[in-house]
Structure formats: C-alpha cells, structure tokens
Amino acid sequence: MSIALIDCNNFYVSCERVFNPRLCGKPVVVLSNNDGCVVARSNEVKALGVKMGVPWFKCRDLAQQHGILAYSSNYALYADMSNRVMRILGALSPAQEVYSIDECFLDLAGCHAPNFTQFGQDIRQRIAQWTGLPVCVGIAATKTLAKLANHMAKKQAQFAGVCDLDAMPPGERDDRLQRIAVGEVWGIGPRLAPKLADLGIRSVLDLQRADPASLRRRFSVSMEKTIRELNGSVCIALEEMAPPRQQIVCSRSFGRPVTELHELNEAITHHMSRAAEKLRQQQSHAGALHVFIRTGEFNRAEPTYNNSLTLPLPSPSDDTRKLVRVALWGLKRIYRSGYRYRKAGVMLSVLASNQGMQGDLFDAPETAQAAKLMQTLDCINRRMGMGTVRLAAEGFSQRWHMRRSSMSPSYTTRWEALPLAS
DNA sequence: ATCACGGTTTGCA
DNA sequence: CTAACGTGCAAACCGTGAT
C-alpha cells in the first residue's frame, strides 16, 4: 500500500507568479478575504519571518522596508489553476482524493511505476510543464505518513521535492522523525502539541512510539488513529467522493462597518444564495437555517452585540427564495440598531438527501417548477460566472462588500482580463 | 443513572 | 489621514429535561 500526497508550493503566490513572472524572486504575499491576514507567502517572505495567518496591518512596516508585494486573493484564478492540477494528477492513478485547493492524495497501488521516487519526479516535471506550478510529493503507506513525507520533501533540499518514506532505511527514517516536532503531524494542531509535550511527547518519533490505547483515553479516537497511521496501518481511508456536508456555512466580514438593516438584508440574501447553491450542488435539502450577525471581535472599545437565530423550516427546502425569506425574517428579529456590525452569515443544517425525503402535511411540497427554476439559475451561473443571475435583494452597490484593494486580473476565467491589444 | 437533544466550545486546516 | 484580524467544517463538550 502506497499513497502519494502532492501539494503545491506556496500555492496562491505561485499562481500569481505564473501570470506575472516579474514576481519571481521577489517577496510576495497573498491576503485572505477582506485583505485581512497573510495566507500565502513566497520563500523570500518566509525568510523575513512573516508568519502564516498574521493580520496584514501588523506587517505593514516590515513590508514597506523590504518591498513586499501584497495581492488580494483571487479565488477564480486559484480555483481554475487547482482544477488543471487536479485533472492532470487524477489521470495518473485510478484513485484520487482532492483534499484541498492545493493538495491531493493518489493511491499508488494502481500505478505500475518501478520506482516511486522517479514517479514523483515525473509528476513534478509534468505539473511544472503543463501548469507552471511547483509541487512537492510525499509518498508513504498511510495518508498521515504521506503528509509527513511531503513536509520533508518541502523542508529538506536534498530530497529535491520528492520523499518516499518507504524507500528510506529504517535507521535514517527514525532519525528524521526524531527531528520533526510533533505539531507537524496531520491532526496535531497548536492546542494538542503542548498537551502532548506535557506527557513528554515532543517529536514525531515520540508520538509514533506512544501507546495508542492510553492516548485514546486521554484524548480521543482521532488521536489513536493518528498514532496507528504513523505506524503504517491505514485508519483514514482515501475518500474519492467527498461525503455530503452535514452543515453548510456562508459568512463574510464586511469591507466596512455596517449599521443599517437594509444593508444586512443584502448581505444575508447574498450569503444565503451561495449556501443554497452549495446545498443543491450536493443534492440535499435543508431542514433548518441559522442567521447570525456580530460586531467586531477585536475592537474592544466599541459596544459588542452578537446574536443569532436558528429557525426550523416547515418542510425541507433547497429553494433560494424560500430560504432567503425565512433568513430575512430571522434577521429582522435579531437586528438591533446602533451597532457597528462587522460580520454576518448563515448556516444550513438538518440536511437530508434529495432521495427519500419526508413531506410535510401542512406545507405545500416544492413544485417541479421551482426545482426547474433553481436548476436553470445554477446552470447559468456555472456557465456565465457566479452571480450572473441573482435575487435583486442582494443589492447592487453592495457597500458592505469585502475589501480587495489589489487583486490581479482573472486571467483564466475572464476574456476582458487578457492583456491583448485593445 | 442514562439518554437524546441542542447549543456552545474546541480544534484543525 | 486612520483603522485594520478569515472561513468552513466536525467532534467534543456540556447543560437540560425526559425516561
């Protein structure tokens, strides 16, 4: 059993560089939604000590000094580049799990490659040539180990971007695992790492050799699975088909403080429309929805107000219009004037698959006509771009919309963005 | 004492 | 000029009322 984890290096920054090669060799960051935090860093920026997830305003001085170039995130571009990469990789193996926008697992069992390290190099070469993106490849017996192998391929230059843990002599392997902090393990985050350290478990090797049963009692099942995976037994299966979500959340911070109900109405309508899209995409209906609004969580000088409301739906629905109507009703109930709201969102829950749904005695079932309408809406928006056809209640000026002060053109998804002669 | 539930917190990526 | 800090998901946890 061998699994490969292919992960793009500094993915968002690398995408920007593909279409703007002048950025190569320069310190570049990509910012999160609303230009809030640093979410991707070029190696030059990492070398300057800028940490992942730092609020951008806190790096402004350093950025000024070193001429760091900052881009707002351009999801249309990254999603398109991701699709290209995933399609290429998917063709190399009968089983692929797309784990996130920039990484996927491949089951190598079905790949008749004589030498997996060479196979990894071929992958790197092909992705570089066909998309312009740099990737690293980790290979091992389980997903957890493949993640770790990928980490080594990235951090240690002598691997040249490919690390096959199974091809490594056991002595050397233990030696390397000894030198990696336990917090690098997949599933061990900033909370668990210190707790493990209290027990004397500091390195990956320590965790690998820990007793799964006792750590399960102290922590959870997932901890036991992680330990077993580190020892080469598969506990976390490759999931080719993502299981349908149990809840769907859409929320955003505003580009500026919002005080008026009519603006919140627009934002909630927008978020609910997106949530309903996701809902229909996974072929579910929602049995309940949740609306929330909140003031800033960092600004302690301002009066705080957080509120939310969960509303059961009379019968499960996937109709944007019905969901929006209920959400706005809920919003009106929780809205208080006189606050500077910074964020709003919705959540759909009690999700049921479209097959075998229970009807309601007192509520009209969703009509075939409504289903057809939603289908058409989704079809147009998929083809012509997000939000081509939408509810007017989403508003037009959208003064609450997130900040994106410096976004690159969407080269691969908008004709107008191509720098052709006009 | 135990269970199902719903809401909240925790944790991760 | 100033103020400014992301999102989505699930599991664990906890209090409550019913059994």
Description:
By secondary structure, the protein is of the alpha+beta class. Helices cover 37% and strands 20% of the residues. The chain has 14 helices and twelve strands. The protein has helices at 11-19, 43-47, 60-66, 75-90, 116-131, 143-155, 170-179, 192-198, 204-208, 212-218, 221-230, 261-281, 320-334, 368-384, and strands at 3-8, 28-31, 38-41, 69-72, 96-100, 103-107, 135-140, 162-164, 248-258, 284-295, 306-317, 341-353. The strands form three sheets. The protein has a five-stranded mixed beta sheet. A four-stranded antiparallel beta sheet has the order 9-12-10-11, with helices on one face. The longest helix has 21 residues, at 261-281. It starts with a strand and ends in a 38-residue tail after the last helix. The chain binds a DNA duplex (13 and 19 nucleotides) through strand 9.
Briefly, what is this?
By secondary structure, the chain is α+β, with helices and mostly antiparallel strands. 37% of the residues lie in helices and 20% in strands.
Distance between the termini: 55 Å
What would the average pLDDT be, to the nearest integer? 91
Number of extended strands: 12
Major beta-sheet overview: 5 strands, mixed
Strand order of the largest sheet: 5-6-1-7-8
Percentage of residues in DSSP E strands: 15-25%
> Helix/strand/pairing class, anyone?
alpha+beta
In N-to-C order, the SSE pattern is EHEEHHEHEEHEHEHHHHHEHEEHEH
- Spans with pLDDT under 50 lasting ≥5 residues? none
Overall body shape: globular
Radius of gyration: 24 Å
